[in-house]
Amino acid sequence: MASTTSSQSTASPLTRHSYEIRTFEFSPAGHCELHLDATMHDWPVVYVLHRPATTPRGKGEVYVGESLNMDKRFGDHLKNDAKSHLEVAEVIVDDTFNKSACLDLESFLINLSSGDESNRMLNSNAGQQEKNYYNRPYYQLRFREIFEELRARGVFSKSIREIENSEMFKYSPFKSLNEDQLSVVSDILDGLVEDFASPPDGNQVAVVQGDPGTGKTIVATFLMKLLSDLGSDVDDLDEKRESVFEDFFLDDIRALFRNRRVGLVVPMQDLRRTLSRVFAATPGLSADMVRSPREVALDDERYDLLVVDEAHRLSQFGAQSIGALTKEFREINESLFGGQRPEASQLDWIRARSDNTILMVDTSQTVKPIDLSTSVLRALIDARDAGHRREYVLHSQMRSIGGNDYIDYVKQVLSPYPPEARADFGPYEIGLVDDPRVLVDLIRAKNEVHGLSRVVAGYAWDWVSKKSPEKFDIHLDNDVHLRWNSTVTDWINSQKSPHEAGSIHTVQGHDLNFAGVIFGKDLQYDLEKEELVVSREDYRDKTGKRNNKLAGRATTDEMLLEFITNIYYVLMTRGVHGTYIHAVDPGLREYLGRYFPVVE
């Protein structure tokens, strides 16, 4: 195959030159041709090795890298059994490239490749990192042009918007981590090396605490892929040499991670199914590594490590959603603990089945009486018992462009201690909408332009359409009628979701571009007492307000207020770019109007 080039003009003051994508056959003959190109010996480049899919329903394969000596790197890859069958090398050359820009472009293409789904990624997880450098915004605009050119050449099948709105992209183990997340992953690895080298007595617990959007799930999936790479026999020294985790890829350290049984526990069915799909598409991971708490408890084989995402949604002992599950809960406790701990929780199951446990936790996201109690979670977070417990905190807000300030502000608004004054969150769109028709139309318009924009609501209306699909569930002013989510799994990506309302059980753990949040009458504001109050009658989730009779615990109004405000806190922190609100209760509408601008 003769090499070909493609270039794009640029108006940047940095250079009058343009980038080029030079194509070579990935073979010894192609290597000879590349060898004659002087740029390939001493200049920073980014390259994509790929093989197109052989069948319409099959997947191609892709590997993304960067190098200062492409000639040598090309030859090394040809000798690598895992890559030698690839067919084409696309080499991106630019007169203005430096090492930082190449690393950034490499990370950009790896992230998008992992969410494209037309290819199987061959990269290991060397730890892509978000770093700033001179004129980065200019380069990032160029990167999007490069991606589109590679897409035109058949390397990718989806647009950037399609990829960035996909669950495969959002939960990819190849995501670039910020300094905060990288530090936590590195600290977790240090702890695991210590424990694997000298196993202590009993189950060891590490707690990763973080608000919504700090990337707890991303850290969990990233860690799972990194552990797989550390424990594998496949070695790609070029990829590890400049990794932030380079020291962990030394032979004696890697030996500690080989043949370890590791699993990711996800309590929520919807998120569990999504992550199973991500793991199935990721080399070194598999769908059966993503487990429910009951699957772990019923598994005969012990785990070396279990990572628990959304650990605040693990269940306590008590009546489950159906009688058969309640009976099974009792049987599992009997089996695991020999009748000694009849009230053990799902967290107890996990600790009994694994030598090491890592919990991803946010105490503000418990939403049902059956969830692990806040007191249990806070006891786990308490770092005073440092000899048996490790605690890590994720501080940086990654989901909302409103940042940590917006997340904290929402938490205050929904608490007994509201903010002293209204705040502004820059480009983040936030507003109170009096007319529900305006809210619904606004979110649907956002969905047309940006995608992934949905209406969500508190559980303040019966789910009539579950048995009568032709009927509506949510009835609002101005002739607005909506149905609850027609599916409980992957609702956000279903075809009907733009015309329905999602509940807490469909969106917790997920991102939206824009969220339209409907506050039902389950949460009200007493203007005389100046306080938030709950209406038990208007809260329609029976399991969300049920007394835990088996454990002898009543669900008080104080507890219910905590659960319901947590639900709305979760709903209001789903939107990446904006959140719009409608409140049914007049008092609550007036209260929220103190803190959010009214949108006509």
Automatic annotation (TrEMBL):
Domain GIY-YIG: start-end pairs: 42-120
The protein's name in its UniProt record: DUF2075 domain-containing protein
UniProt cross-references to SUPFAM superfamilies, sorted A to Z: P-loop containing nucleoside triphosphate hydrolases
Native source organism of the sequence: Corynebacterium kalidii
Pfam families linked to this entry: SLFN-g3_helicase (PF09848)
PROSITE patterns the UniProt entry points to: GIY_YIG
InterPro entries linked to this entry: AAA+_ATPase (IPR003593), GIY-YIG_endonuc (IPR000305), Helicase_ATP-bd (IPR014001), P-loop_NTPase (IPR027417), SLFN_3-like_DNA/RNA_helicase (IPR018647)
Organism domain of life: Bacteria
Family annotation (CDD domains): GIY-YIG_COG3410 (cd10439)
